[in-house]
Amino acid sequence: LGNHLGIDGWETLLEEYGQKYYEKYVNTITIFPEMEETIELLKYRGCKAGIVTSKTRNQFQGGFGSLPCAKLFDCVICTDDTQFHKPHPAPLLECMTRLGGTESNSIYIGDSQNDMLCAANAGIKGGLALWGCYRAKGIEADYYIRNPSDLLAFI
């Protein structure tokens, strides 16, 4: 976008904004109720779980990655792991490859328009996590999921 507007250094500006946002809110990161127990049950039932995030690896490790429940995830793809980023399907497809997933046995749970577009672009079902979505109105998804424990119905 910055290139089209003739703004030099827009990528650096975007990275700096993301870092400032991260620094301001990193200490407010908490796990949603039912989330840890739900992931543990899914894993017990043989499911694999991955994370595809727009955060850099350093931001992820300093935030969610430092929580004990982060160890429940089999794969984490950060924005610096792929050339293209959400809503492009590349990061989600990379996660699916690493987990051995296919379009027919995978679902991507996210809380934003970009997450649902990423799922659609990757050819898999997308579930909008209403517990973490700030503005669900107008976001198209295959499923609208009210609580983390509702994920257990998918297996």
Quick recap of the structure?
The chain is α/β, with parallel strands linked by helices and 155 residues long. It has helices at 10-25, 35-44, 57-62, 90-99, 113-122, and strands spanning 50-52, 75-77, 107-110, 125-129, 143-145.
Task: Describe the protein's architecture and organization.
With 155 residues, this protein is an alpha/beta fold. The chain contains 5 helices and 5 strands, in the order ααβαβαβαββ. The longest helix has 16 residues. A 3-stranded parallel β-sheet has the order 3-4-5, covered by helices on one side. Strands 1-2 form a two-stranded parallel sheet. The mean pLDDT is 88. It is globular.
Short descriptors:
three-stranded parallel β-sheet; two-stranded parallel ribbon; alpha/beta; 5 strands; 5 helices
Helix content estimate? 25-40%
Average of the residue pLDDT scores: 88
Uncertain stretches = none
Beta-strand proportion? 5-15%
Class by alpha and beta content = alpha/beta
Order of helices and strands: HHEHEHEHEE
Strand order of the largest sheet: 3-4-5
Q: Biggest sheet, in brief?
A: 3 strands, parallel
The coarse silhouette is globular
State the total count of DSSP E strands.
Answer: 5
Query: Treating each run of at least 4 consecutive H or I residues as one helix, how many helices?
Result: 5
Termini distance?
40 Å
